[in-house]
Amino acid sequence: MKIYDSLSNKNIEVGEPITIYCCGPTVYNDVHIGNIRPIITFDVLNRFCLFSKKQVKFVHNITDIDDKIIKTAKQNNENELTLSNHYYLRYLDVLKQLNIDTNIMMPKVSENIDGLIGYIQKLIDSNHAYVSNGDVYFDVRSINNYGLVSHQKIDELMSGVRIENSSNKKSNLDFALWKETSEGINWDSPWSKGRPGWHSECSYFINKYFGKQVEIHGGGIDLKFPHHENENAQNLAISNVNIAKIWMHVGHINIDNKKMAKSEGNYILAKDLLQEYSSNVLRWFMYQTQYENPINFTKESLNQLQNDFSKLIKTINQTYIDLILKDIKVNFNINYLNSSFISALENDLNFPNAVQSVWSDVKSLRSLISKKDYEQLAKNLSSINNEFKILGLKYEIILTNDNLKLINEWKLALTNKDFVKADKIRNSFIERGII
Fold first, then answer.
1. Distances (CA, A) of 54 to 47, 147, 177, 293
2. What is the CB neighbour count within 10 angstroms for residue 180?
3. Tens digit of pLDDT for each residue in 208-228?
4. Residue 259 phi/psi, 5° resolution?
5. Is the pTM of this model over 0.70?
6. In the list 26, 102, 165, 258, which could disulfide-bond 63, CB 3.0-4.6 Å?
């Protein structure tokens, strides 16, 4: 399996055991649809690795302490951890609605303060960080290749990138590892009463759970600079190696061809969209474009995909019904996956090709019944079921006890040439949207 590495700009073979780290949300508000694209992408990667019987370890952090959280809590006259836990639970609810596997490690910053303090102290002891008036900053000039991840030179960054300045810093680019503060929640440290900076948490979690280097690390493309750059800088300082073997960056979601931005009110909350559309439709939408590329969201495109996906499900259901009506017994539980689907995901999670493979399998069902090729039909049905599982798509198989009873009544009516009753049963399936 190969994944495109945005640092080297080439596909890299993924080694085992497969370790994965995906940056999580800052839980001060409900997540928007741009926040869920990376976790859906990494969820498919995780599912495919598990299905392929590979050793995999997946960590997805939760930033539950941050300036935005403290500001929002102050405005609401609320405790910071109460606020962040509220939105963390709402985020979990969105993940569950989207059928994202939550049986992964999801560490919170607030539960790892002692470890973070120890990690920051290592950077100070190695002369890559310094204390200034109770704050702790990382000295970007203490490493030779700052700018590696974002493909920028440090001198260009100094002159061309707006970074918040502070009289406490040696350099405008130096970033906070620890912030001295009496405002909001804070903890005791060797340097001051304060809280950790944003960029220190992910590098610490990777160090804690994976050691010197994680196999695959990523998130949204907007995190490449400064967040991922600053994570990498800390790891280079401590371990003299890039923090990730493969950097996997997921493209933006645009809304009606405009960049999604909360500041301009151009965004859609995931929870609101899930009230209008199923998780299947939202996930199916994400798979129409390769994950690295931007994707444009419109209600029209989602409505079309909803119709398309409904047709796909109805074809599968009709196949199951036809087999029972023809009294054909087929072993549907063959552990099989179409080679074209495997090839698509092994080639940098090529979602459009994976979607094409699903459609190809579904379209073949009617033809295989006509040809009476039931062995291949069973394989294709099994492949479709497994493709759905890997893509996190929910498919409730039609063969429930109640449906089976109705289908058998339908079969008996056809045998007895009671076409009025047979049509009545068929129409009931149509009215329920099953076929």
1. 10, 33, 35, 27
2. 19
3. 999 999 999 999 999 999 999
4. -60, 130
5. yes
6. 26
